[in-house]
Amino acid sequence: MESTKLTLSVKSDSVPRMKEYAKRKHTSVSKLVQEYFDKIEEQEKKEDSLIEKYKNTEIPEWIQSLTGILKGKYPEDMDYKEMKYEYFKEKYDL
After folding, report:
1. Are 5 and 11 in contact (CB under 8 A)?
2. Band (30; pLDDT cuts 50, 70, 90)
3. What is the dihedral of CA 34, 35, 39, 42, to 10 degrees?
4. Which of 15, 34, 70, 87 is deepest in the core (most CB within 10 A)?
5. Which residues are within 8 A (CB) of 29 and not within 5 positions of it... i.e. 6 or more apart?
6. Pairwise CA distance, residues 42 & 79, whole Å
7. Range 18-45 average pLDDT
């Protein structure tokens, strides 16, 4: 496969770390960037095919009945640390 030269802008303090990482992996920074991009692209294709697979799937009635069960509790309003604390408090009878 033909290669094309590309100029990237990265934080200057990252360059030595990138080179050291590539050296430890016995590869080049260019190859690392290419492999990273290929993995992202592959993952995106998997996600797209999964979305397509379930796009027209009907949601069972019993699941639809759960809609709105946590009224007023939106993810951005939830305090996960508090939820974890309450869970362990109940589990270990504290």
Report:
1. no
2. very high
3. 70
4. 34
5. 18, 19, 22
6. 34
7. 95
